[in-house]
Amino acid sequence: MGIATELRGKRVINARGYSTKVGGSRPSAEVMEAMVEASTFFVRIEDLQASAGAVIAELTGAEAGYVTAGASAGLTLAAAAAIARLDPGRMNRLPQSDGMPNEIVLLRRHRNDYDHALRLAGARLVEVGFNDWTFAYEIEEAIGERTAAVFYLGSDEHANLSLADVVAIAHRHDVPVIVDGSMALPPAANLRRFFEIGADLVSFSGGKHIQGPQASGILAGRRDLITSVALQHQDMDVYPEMWPSRGLIADHVVVGPPHHGIGRGFKVGKEEACGLIAALRAYVRRDFAAEAARLGGYADEIASGLAGIRGLHARRVDGHLVPGAMGRPGPHVEVEVGPDAGLTAFELVNRLQAGDPIVCTWEGKAFEGQVRFYPDGLADGEASEVVVAARRACGA
Ligand SMILES: *Cc1c(COP(=O)(O)O)cnc(C)c1O
Questions:
Q1: Of 183, 209, 216, which is best to mutate to test ligand 1, by the most ligand atoms within 8 angstroms of its C-beta?
Q2: Largest CB tally within 10 Å, which of 27, 84, 141, 338?
Q3: Average pLDDT in the 339-353 region?
């Protein structure tokens, strides 16, 4: 038994999709080889970020790219860049942002767990609209001298204001738009699409559908903002006279190097950066139709295996991995736990996560009596184990 298996304890069957709580994804051998290769040498991190950024720019169509420690870290860096821009004095003061344009305008319906990442940089969130409707003029009115950016949740496909609408308003006022693209892959087309629409910075997770290292992500977009990100993220133990980026001073881009910035605690190792780029290169070649067919098979197996359990109503639901969708899950199983099931959705989730192996499900709708099974992280043979565990949990 290796040390990782020793530390893991009980085996976990991941039926909740790629998520941080269960360790992200299972990076391919190709990704792990890149990480091992990176572990054998030293490199100046700014050089590595520059070449990784060039690959990201090429594959996303953005002006510039950067490897982050995840989409959440990317959002903090994006907010920091929007607030401080290329002013080292401001960079040094964050998250204290008094006296700087520090407001980030967003649709109320786009408030979510991860907007703490924006506030972490010193941003103040300005919500507009209602949960189900936002007028364009409400965004327009909220933008003013104190506005640093407008935020948009890339995976929202039901908002009445599209990203294109919001970009048009923000750009009329010369304000950048930050997009959280973490749940917007698949479809892979969204790697490019947000930039085609005009987003200024987009943050993606490396450890979800891209299946790179769990503690990695991509931030891409406007070159000046990515330069600000780099300055606030890298180790800045430098002196102006010997700083490898001193050309930025000579060219009057910055007056001097900032100190360690708001992003220093989200550092990215050379192993993560190289693993992420290996995963991203593989991502744009991946056969998503074949993957969806395999996952659909697991979903069918779970749905049919749960059929006939008293009080449970299981059905396969298909996402649409089509270009044009803003980001939807692929095939999965939605299980309604009815009043005659003899247990609640909460109990079903808890029994599954108390078992051996532990079966992790997606519990976000349990308060509505629904438990979801996402097949993305299942290996061959695990769908039938999920069925056995669920039948046992229901006493069937
Ligand atoms: C997962 C997630 C994030 C954070 O991504 P990490 O790569 O884990 O940091 C941000 N936003 C949304 C909507 C997410 O689902």
A1: 183
A2: 84
A3: 97
Residue 301 near ligand 1, beta carbon < 6 Å = no
70 CB within 6 A, ligand 1: yes
The position carrying tokens 């767990």 is: 113
Atom of ligand 1 nearest to the CA of 208: 7
pLDDT confidence of residue 323? 42
Which one of 230, 263, 283 terminates a domain? 283
Ligand 1 within 6 A of CB of 183: yes
Specify whether the CB–CB gap between 224 and 86 falls below 8 A.
Answer: yes
Same domain, 351 and 242: no
Same domain, yes or no: 312 and 185: no
| CA pair distance 363, 320, nearest whole angstrom | 22
From the alpha carbon of 117, which atom of ligand 1 is closest?
10
pLDDT over 80 (residue 324) = no
Determine the distance from the C-alpha atom of residue 13 to the mean position of all C-alpha atoms in its chain, rounded to a whole number. 22
Q: How far is 323 from 358, CA to CA, in rounded Å?
A: 35
Our answer on whether the CB atom of 74 is closer than 6 Å to any ligand 1 atom is: no
Range of the domain at 72: 42-283
What is the 111 CA–ligand 1 centroid distance (Å)?
13
- Quickly count: other Cβ atoms within 10 Å of residue 239's Cβ: 9
* Structural contact between residues 279 and 206, judged by C-beta atoms closer than 8 angstroms: yes
Separation of 162 CA from ligand 1 center, angstroms? Answer: 21
Regarding whether 237 and 252 lie in a shared domain, the answer is yes
Does residue 134's CB lie within 6 angstroms of at least one atom of ligand 1?
Answer: no
Among 254, 283, 312, which residue terminates a domain? 283
The reported pTM is: 0.96
Report how many domains make up the chain. Answer: 2
- Does 83 lie in the same domain as 170? yes
